[in-house]
User: Fold this.
Amino acid sequence: MKKFLESIKRNQFLRKSIAFFASFCYGFPSRKLVVFGVTGTNGKTTTSYFLKSILEKAGLKTGLIGTSGYWLDEKTKIEPAAIGTQPITTPDPFYLQSLLKKMVKRGTKYVVMEVSSFGLRDWRVFGINFKGAILTNVSLCHHIFEHKNFKNYLEAKKILFKMLNEKSFAVLPRESEYFDDFKKITKAKVISYGFEPSSDVYGKIIKENAEETVLKVKKGDLDFEISLLKNGGRYNALNALAVIALTLEFNIDYNKIKEGIESCPPLEGRFEVFRGKGITVIVDKANTPQAFKEVTERVKNLKPRRIIGVYGNFVEFPLEIRQLLAEFSTNNFDLTIITVDDSANQSPEEGITDFLDYVVSRVKPEKYLAIEDRKEAIKEALKRAEKNDVVLILGRGDERLMNLGGKIIEFDDRKVVKELLQNKR
Assistant:
């Protein structure tokens, strides 16, 4: 019976019909808008805000739908509802169409939309005429569990690019191992971007330190530099290249593109830095092996004396991913403090046990520590930190709620850090 109900719930014809009916009920608002979709495992939110900032600098009234909020225009933001503790990145068709309708009424013309793998799998965006789509990257993540396997997850991402028509643009990362797969399945004009010189939009990092990442951009005869002061790092340089590739196709002046990216404010919970007593604390949403790697590379540019990492072992993530996180953290952090994070259906302590089972015969005991209470784990990290150390708190970013064994509690890593640093003074 459970499998039967699941098949009904996921029925493609039914899901598409619901999405079409929602569009019909709200008067097909996306037909009056220019909609850009952004999908990928990591970087969707930053890429979306880069794109929104560029469009606004170009004088185009722009809305945004994504994990960190739904912007109807430049000034009006609606906080997204949550399933459990997670904000809904791509809402259900009726709410999604209602947001688009509100944008139309406000005179908003352009919309940037984060499109999640669940939103694609469930056809929530069916019927929306995307004028362009960006793929940031595809890698292992916890969503694979919900998709049953990586192949299904990858196929869900491809749906956005299959939806594109011949007059639209597919912006793809040239260095991705899945570049050719996505290129083959889309009717859109493909624009490649990346650090590979053969990319249509080619970027080269010419300066990178703790304060700044300077990116040299080249497309054909066009050649210019962008300074990433507020959103630095190699991964954000790639996000910037993606939006540059798309906006150049829409004939937006490169000076406006440069201004939009450079003035884009830093996002909450994305490499958010706190300082006190000579130590640096960084809170970041990274919760995949690739994201761990990218954030850590940026931290190492700070030339820290030591790195102390704190993260929760998501017990509902596939064990393979959690073991990769354990391997990476213990290889790259001077001390890893394992703790809890969201665990709706299982005991969060199981994640800690799995971590310990993995590291006990592989890692020196002084390289790791297990503390169940997340606040106490952060407190211990700050207590052990000395001058010029970096404490890296990963997995939650700007999230404000945590699900522990089905019980929802308020918990914000950033709030805890501020409180503890103040006390440390």
